[in-house]
Every structure is written in structure tokens, then in C-alpha cells.
Design goal:
Largest sheet: 8 strands, mixed
Distance between the termini: 59 Å
Strand order of the largest sheet: 7-6-8-5-9-10-4-11
Number of strands: 21
Amino acid sequence: MTSDLPARAAPALIAMDAAIAATGLNVETRERPKLERIIARLLPPGAEHIDDATFRAALCTLRRKPWGSRLMDLTRRAGQVWITRADAESAAGTIDVPEPDDARLLASLRPVVRARLRDQGDSAQAAVENVRTDLFDGTGRMLSPAELRTLALAAADAFDIADPDTFARQVEDADQRTRTRREEIEQTARARRKEEVQRLREWETKLVPFAEVPGLLRCSHREALRWIAEKRLPVARRVPQKDGQERWEFDPAELIALRPQVQLWRQDRTERATPPAPDLGDRRVGNAVIAQVAALDRYAAHFTTARALKRRITLVTGPTNSGKSHTALDALARAESGLALAPLRLLAHEFRESLTARGVPTSLATGEERIDIPGSRHLAATVEMCPLNNPVDVAIIDEAQMLTDPDRGAAWTAAIMGAPARHLFILGAPDCIPMVRRIAELCGDPIDEVRLERKSPLVAADSPVRIQDLQAHDALIAFSRREVLDLRALLLAHGKRVAVVYGALSPEVRRAEAQRFNRGEADILIATDAIGMGLNLTIRRVVFAALRKFDGTQTRDLNAQEVKQIGGRAGRFGKHEKGVVAVLEGVGSPSFIHAKLSAPPEPQDDLRPQVQPDADIVQAVAAEIGSDSLFGVLVRIRRAVLRRDDPNYRLANMEQAFAIATALEGVEGLTLAQRWVYAMCPVDDRDNGIQRLVGWAADHAAGHPVPPPGTGRLPPAERAERSELERAEKRHKRLVAWRWLALRFPDAYPDRENAEIATTRLNDWIEDVLRQQSTRTRAEMPQMQPRRRGHDRPDRGPRAEDRPRGRSRRRK
């Protein structure tokens, strides 16, 4: 069918020139071609005249985009940086005068801004806070005092406040108080950190080399060496040398305090027990004494209840879909009392549901949630919430391969060593066997091993899969949120129904998306490695859209365990006869998948389990050094508690806890125990999380209730942009952190009901957005970029929004 537009172009030109002459309106030369096309579409067949009203409307249509740009320029000059382009375009769309001046343009903006601000909250104050949060989330920009004033005046107008100037001053005063408090906290923190570092440096300058030890103790060189080997003499600091040796340094005051014991040591040369730390009074305390107090080199002994039991460990290993959880849950259900520890809150819920379905009443404990069932003697919990003092008959610890995780591995060490169960089932991939054996040896617990085989075969595809050949029950795997959403848009453009799962989604949304896929309401699941744990999925084929991932440090090839863990989700027993693992065309070679699936477990470089201090250890070290500074305590623990070559343990990554402790130094009025709780809070440090946490802690210390974060404005799901989806995900994470603290400090965080409502609202909105089907044409959709083969791609880190957010170890 051909267009009749060219035949009508001449009448449109005649009509346009006549209308310009009749109305006297000025039309720029550059506007004429587009205006002529608009008029051509409006003219009835055969007509050569357009009435004045229609011509003015056509000219307004033409000029709305430039009006929007002009409004953006005017508002930026006026300091109204919080006004969005959507606001300006909406206002421009209401103008029906072809030649408005700036005053008319700005007047059109007022009703749009009023409506938007009233939609942002139920009060002017709430609207101001939500707009500020939106602006920071979207651009990272903080409003200056002058810019904040323009927003406060607009909010006062929107809510018809009688005295807008007074309201604006109140907002400005509150903002100034917040800024002042933040500066005071930072200044105090810097001063206290400097004091702690100076105290440590002063102590270090007093250390002496080994050559001076015999003279201080009035003993021989050989005696000093023997007493060091017997751990009688504390080595204050070991300094690695270039030749691989260590330079030992000693605290002379510690050695002098030990002089009275020298004669006793000589009298009983067979004594091998480590003597108790001497009473050193108020003087500086050496690293060796700190290490002795913390006793992380004897970590298993911390768990007195577990050590008092005659524990028996059964290690159940096998690939994905081998029935590990089912076997252990049956044993747990038969026990009179028990404990099921999961890596994720989602999986803890599934454990609870599985036990309840077996007729076993089960309570729940996660970082942010409690469900207490009266009379229940079974508990499902996240690994970090493992109770250590109440003995049970049977306990399960799932996903033991997480022992090697750099962020959360210490939680698995503590749970396996400390679970107070007479019979402990440890479940995991075969890779975890050597380290679990080592932990059992350190605990003195006997261990049985059960190895299960996969219930349905898993095969590697011989050829890559084209994007257009993806079928129902396929899962497409990417390794960043951005790529998951790009693939979703592409598949929607191909007419596919899609569900998505990635780490930034809450457990509730992930489960809802998984259920849509399992019920057949979505043809294809697009996911990150978040599907590797905690979701039951009826996947027929797993297709990798990438064979490299950013692991927080570097971009590297997937290892064999990752391919097996993710690919093993294909071929759910009882649903599909076999599972297939493939690679997307253009991403890499199928031989890579073949090699990884058939590879034996990769040898582990370091079989020492990771450990970290707990609240009791922190308190003990603080008492020993005579300081209530969490920063100072963690500095000493990091320097002193475990040698790098300790044969049994290694200190876990505590970088974020250290960063929080550092920032909290300036908050007065919190106990050391309270600071330690804040240091363990699951915050996203790339979302300004630590600064936000310090603000909450300051309110807590001042005795002010800490309000929960809001949801902000949530647009209709069908019109939500990707940036708005990401903003909602960030706010959900903030609510997770707030609820985590509310369980530990209920008096300081009292409004749990509204926090629960906000969490539910965000979850429902995010799921609504993901459920929406695109109505755009393929031409409007992002196109798949050509991919180089996995081993030819440059070793680059991802863009900022694709990197792992905060610590994964507390994603419960």
C-alpha cells in the first residue's frame, strides 16, 4: 500500500502559508518542513485550507520538545535541579499558545510539579525527603542549601502551606543540623582513629629484637628459643623478610612481667600447657597477648556446647539434583529436635515449608525475620543465625562449598564447628570434602561420608544455541543485572514470555518469578548465578550467555564448580528426562562446557577454614587493651590474632566491618557491643550505605526513633523505566538493613509494621514491573551486540551498576 502523502504535500504547503499569513505567527525556516508534514496529516483529502485553531495546535505540537528543553534550562538556572525532564515535557504538553514567553512556560510547570510532589508523600516534608532520595539514587547528586530551598517552597505550594517561607526555613535548618552533625561525627572519628593509631605506633616503637630477650629474662639463648616454641614467651610482632624468614620482635614490659615464672619453667621442662596471660595492668598490651585472648588459633574451643556433645558428622555430597536435601530433611523430620541451616532466607523458608509438610512444626529465624511456632522443637534459619547454646538431636548445614567464599565462608566455619547437634548433616558439592574433613579433625568429631549421584543425566550440547532458537523451559544465564535486562528486552521483542532472577531482587520476587516460570506463564528464564542456590526450577536446558564473570576482583573464566552448580539446574528429576547445558551462539565454544562438566573437583589451594571474631571475642580484646574503640579493637585483631602462616585457620575478609567501625568512631553514646552489631549490618556500601548507617546510629545514640526508609514514588508498573526498577531495588535493600537492625534494637527502630508494609509494597511493585510484557516494536528494542568468544574477551571489570553490591555474606 503506497502513501498518498506526496500528492498532498502541495496542498499542505498552500494551507501552511495561508495560515501563517492569516494568524501572523512567526515560523522559523527550520520548522517549516516538519510543520508541513504535520499539516499534511491533518488535511482532509482535496482540502487546501486549515482553520486557525488547528494550525495553532499543529504549531504547538511541533514546538513542545523545544519548550521542554527551554523549561529545563530555566529551572536549572533557578536552582530547581530536582525538576525532571518528564516534568518539563508534561508541562510543555499543556501549552496551547504557539508563542509563549518564559513566564507562561514556567506557569505551565506549576500544576505538574504540584501533582508530582503530592504524589511523592502524604506531607510536604515527606515529599521533600522522597524527591531528595530520588535525585541521589538517580544521579548521585546532593542538593545545595539554595537548591533545597527551591524544593521546600515548591512542596509548601503543593500542600497549600500557609507560610511557605517558614516551612522552607524549617527544612533548611533541619538540613543544616544534619550537615553539622555529619561533620562533627567525621571530625570526632578522625580524631579517635588518630589516637588509636598513635597508641599502637607508640607501642610498636618500644619493641625489641630477639637478641635482647635473654638479657631481659636473665636466661640463655637456647632457653628463650625453647620457651618461644612452647608458647610461653609471646612474640609481639612477626615481620616478614624478603628471604622468607621472619624478624621476631618482643614487648620488653611483657617479658619483664614474666620473670617470676622463669624458675618454674626451668624446674618443669616437660610442661607444655600454655600459661595464662599475666596481669599487665593498664600498660600497653602486646599483639601476642591479644592473640591469646582472642584465641582464634584455637577457634573450635570457642563452641563449648558443641565440644561438650559427642557429635557425629555425616557429610552428604553430590551434584545438583542428587537429592542431598531430601535425604537430610527426612532424618531431621524423624528427630525429636532439630535445626536446618540454609545459605539464603529463601531457602530457609523452603526448609521450614518442607518440614511443616512432613508434619513437623518449625520456627524460622533469619537476619530480618522471625516466625515463632509455639511448642516447636525444630528451627529453620540462615547460616549466620545458627544458635550455639541449645543442643538438638539433628542439624543440617547446606551448601558447604560456601566455606571457601571470601565474604561468607567464616559463617559456615562457625556453623559447622558450633552447631550443637548430636548428629550433624553437612550437605554440599564434592569440592567441599577436603575442608569439611579438616574441620572435623580440628573439632575431634568422627565423620561419615555419603556420596550421591545425580538422579537424571546431565549432558553438554554439541552445538551453540541461536537466540531465536530458545524454547520453553530454557534458562539463559548472564552475570550482570544489566545484561539480564538487556536479554529480557531482546526476547520480549522476539515474542517470548520471560521471567528474570538476579541477585538484586528480593527473595520474595525471585520466588514469584520462579513460580511464573514453573507454571508456564513465562517461556524462558533469564538469570544470573543467583539461581545456583535456593530455587526449585523446572529447567530443561541451561544456556550460558557468558562464559566469564566479574568476581569482585577480576573478570575471569567460569570455573568447573560454577558451571556444574548452575548447569546442574537443568533436568529437574521427575520433570525432564535429562538436563542439557549449552552456550549461546557467539559467546564461546561448546567444548568449554564439555570440559568443565567432566572436570574433577578442583584442588583447593588453602584448606584452612576462615574465621572471624564474634561479639565475645571483641569484648575480650577491648577489655585487654583497655579501649572501647571498635576501630582500635579490629586494628589489633587484624594485626595480631592470626599469623599469616597459622597452620589451622585464616582470618576472614573483614573489610566492610572495618569500614563501618571506622565511620562509627565519631558517634558518641553507643556501647562497644552495639557498635559491633552495626558493623555486622548488611548494607550496600555502593549505595551510600555506610553513611546512611552512621546517621541511623547517631539517631539511636541520641535516643531518637529511627524511621524506616520509604518506598518513594512508584510509577505505574507498565510505564516504569529501568532506572526506576533499580531505584526500587536499592530501597528494598535499605529496608532489609533497617529491619535487620529493628530485630536487634527494637526500641530504637520501633516502626516495624510500616517497614513491613513498605517492603511488601516494593516487592509487589517490582514483581508487577517484571511481569509486564513489552508493547514496543522490535525496532525499538535493544539489539544483541556481537559477542566475542569467551576466551577472547578483554579482561575488564563491569560497569558500576553491574558489580557485586556490598557484602554477599549477609544476603540472608
